[in-house]
Amino acid sequence: MLNPVNDDRDYAPFVQQFERQGFARVPLTDAMACKIERIYRLGEQFFVRSEAEKQSYSMQSHVEGYRELGPEYSQVPERPDLTESFSAWNRNRGRPEVEEAVGGLELHRALREISDEWSLIVRGIFRAMADAWAPGSPELRCYNGTYVQLNYYEPSQHSAELLQDSHEDAHLLTLVKANAPGLEIEVDGKYIPAGADSNEIVFMPGSLLSLMTGYKIKPGYHQVRNTRRRDPRSSLLLFVNPEIDQKLEPWIKNESNAGIDIIERANEGPKQFGMPTLVDGTAGEAFPELMEHKEAVLAEQSQPVRAKG
Ligand SMILES: [Fe+2]
Question: What are the backbone angles phi and psi of residue 165, rounded to the nearest 5°?
């Protein structure tokens, strides 16, 4: 079991795991495992609420809060990811319209707390990566580009073999911990169970990390298999992007990343999954169609209430 996270911890072994295996695994402390279990419970209570109640905790102009199954996909829009989700972005902290929509929800507060704890590990690993591959390089800033998300699957409700098609996340890093099997990662051309349901956080590299390392670290392809499980499957994720107001120089330069603007790639990356750019999400101009959908759902729900009054 690892000691509590602090700046003195040696993260070099995890960098070596990335080099050897393409992925890394960080053991959970008992305290963190308890916090994650609590998030699963809060999620199970939230996602069974009515569509109108869930939509009332959504602010998709900023990609914050509840998002229904449908808009996000891994390969093509015709095959959406078969999950509902709830997101919390660091960039949205303190924004009045976001706080008004989601601030009162215990699930949201718990997600922010775990985001802070996981981000400490991410910072340590990035520091160790810089030390290993580009000593003396400036800190890779990623706070405002990072968001935490709880995915909620109901596997037995779907006939598809895969609940998420194969993809890589087009971020720097993805951290994942799930309460049930399903996540598979590609190793030597084959998909194998990721073990995210064990007592470890799985760290998956995205193509932005590949660009930072001259493809020393390859993008981590993954998918979610349908186990037909009758109980819901919950998956807690931290997605790490660079902040977009910095110039990012690769740690390792070679022909694979020559002339590529990594920040521009970060900004555009989410579009391949039906998601808004980082710029649009930051400006509160994301997902106008989902904002309209929310208004329609809430208006429909309020009709009978008004009629009674
Ligand atoms: Fe993914």
Answer: -70, 160
Give 270 Cα–ligand 1 centroid separation in angstroms.
11
Mark 31-66 as b/e (b = at least 16 C-beta within 10 Å): ebeeebeebbebbeebbeeeeeebbbbbbbbbbbbb
For residue 36, is it within any domain? Answer: yes
CA 4/CA 185 separation, integer angstroms: 28
Q: What is the Rg, in whole angstroms, of the alpha carbon atoms belonging to the chain?
A: 19
Residue 119 included in any domain: yes
Beta bridge partners of 164: 224
Instruction: Tell me how many domains the chain contains.
Output: 1
Distance 234 CA to ligand 1 centre (A): 14
Distance (Å) from CA 148 to ligand 1 centroid: 13
Tell me the sheet residues that pair with 273.
Answer: none
CATH number at residue 265: 2.60.120.330
Task: Tell me which residue range forms the domain holding 96.
Answer: 12-272+284-308
288 Cα to the center of ligand 1, angstroms = 24
| This prediction's pTM | 0.94
Q: Phi-psi category of 260—alpha, beta or left, where left has phi over 0 and alpha has psi -120 to 50?
A: beta
In a domain, 126, yes or no: yes
Instruction: Report DSSP letters for 103-127, one per residue.
Output: TT-HHHHHHHHHHHHHHHHHHHHHH
Cα–Cα distance, 242 to 142 (Å, whole number): 4
pLDDT digits (tens, 9 = 90+) for 120-155: 999 999 999 999 999 999 999 999 999 999 999 999
